[in-house]
Amino acid sequence: DVEALDNIYLRLILPAATLVTAGAAAALAAAFVSWELAVVPAALLATAASAALATASRTRKHARRREAALQALRVRAIDLAGAQVDLAVAGRLGAQRRSALRAATRMAWSARHLDTADVACGVAISLLGSVALLGAFLLAAHEFRSGRIDGAVLVAVVLVAMALAEVIGPLRRAALAFGRTQLAARRLMPLLSDAHARPHRAPRIMIRRCDPCRFALRDVGFRYAGRSTPVLASFDLDIAPGERIALAGASGSGKSTLLAMLAGLARPTSGTIRADGLLLESLPLGDHLARVGFLAQRTEIFNDTVAANLRLAAPDADDAALWAALQMVELDTKVRTMPRGLSARLGEAGAGLSGGEARRLALARIVLKSPAVWLLDEPTAGLDEALAHRVMDNVMHHARGATVIIATHRAREAHHARRIVRLDPVRRGEIASMGRLSHDMSGHQTAEQ
Predict the structure, then answer these.
(1) Burial (Cβ within 10 Å: 0-12, 13-18, ≥19) of residue 384
(2) On the chain, which terminus has fewer CB atoms closer than 10 Å, C or N?
(3) Residue 425, CB-side half-sphere exposure with 13 Å CA sphere
(4) Interval 345-361: pLDDT, tens
């Protein structure tokens, strides 16, 4: 969209201003020769502008469709290239490929309409330039034969008419760029207006934006596409506001799936999930995610600076807030040793950080956001025992009053929960026990009722 807005000056304002200025100057100069001759540049200006406006109006819808299809193709192609293993495991590789091809087909269809309009506009503008040149020559020749102008003026009139034909050429590109530019402006201008209107506020690292909600899961089931065995079946659970729960169980028992459903990023195939009495799937996803912090198993770190990765969660946070969040996850010392500190650039998937450090950076984002609901999937994976205890102590102290649900295999994480829900993989997500774990969950998972 930012790139498309370059068209406003280069392809819209500049060609239109040049055409008006040149046309007005040519008409004024021609009026000194004869009023009939002054009609030629004026008529050329009006008809060329009309042709460009008609083309812009006709192609606006197709330009928008092409841009939407292009964006869809980019996203789906990136997902197809970067998540092949996940898609293959979920049985969605073929569907993702077909989805990308459908986006490419829509883009090609819209591009054909734009090409057709481009050719038609080019022909019309070229024809207008030729007609204007011919008209100017005939009128100037008549004036020459009448003795009112000499040969030098006749040649000058023809050269000016040829120059005007060149000036109207860029209108063709302007007409085609109008639709995409208008779409980009509509998407970006409200954001820019809000940014200028909104005064700078201090970081709200210790303030939650809403109260924690109450979750009620009833007869919830979930099955991945292409699989006959469900991950969860007939699952019931009530989560009170501000409660801290640890989800225990072997791999495949449905812990990560349950967190994704509570985050609103996955829908149950059966049953209902309610948040404060409302069906979760009926709530706007953006509104629900605004009060949820979700640390998934797969840590998403982007090819950008440390500060930019953190400000995804809190765009208004200043450097002091970023350092406070990093200190809370015991990552501030590491970042201070990097050549540019917060401005140090990370590579794809967090290149430049170890797996545990990248995970803590993602956890620091949630600390900055200070959500009402914390959904943490093995938050201290890859950390040694002492460091994991310090990080969990800091984070849980910061999350006081919020609802915290942790999927874990480790007692050091479950230690902070007031209730432990142990899922039974044999019975597909049914609750096997509730209570507190007596020792390391990665070994024998026992619970005190």
Answers:
(1) exposed
(2) C
(3) 11
(4) 876 665 667 778 888 88
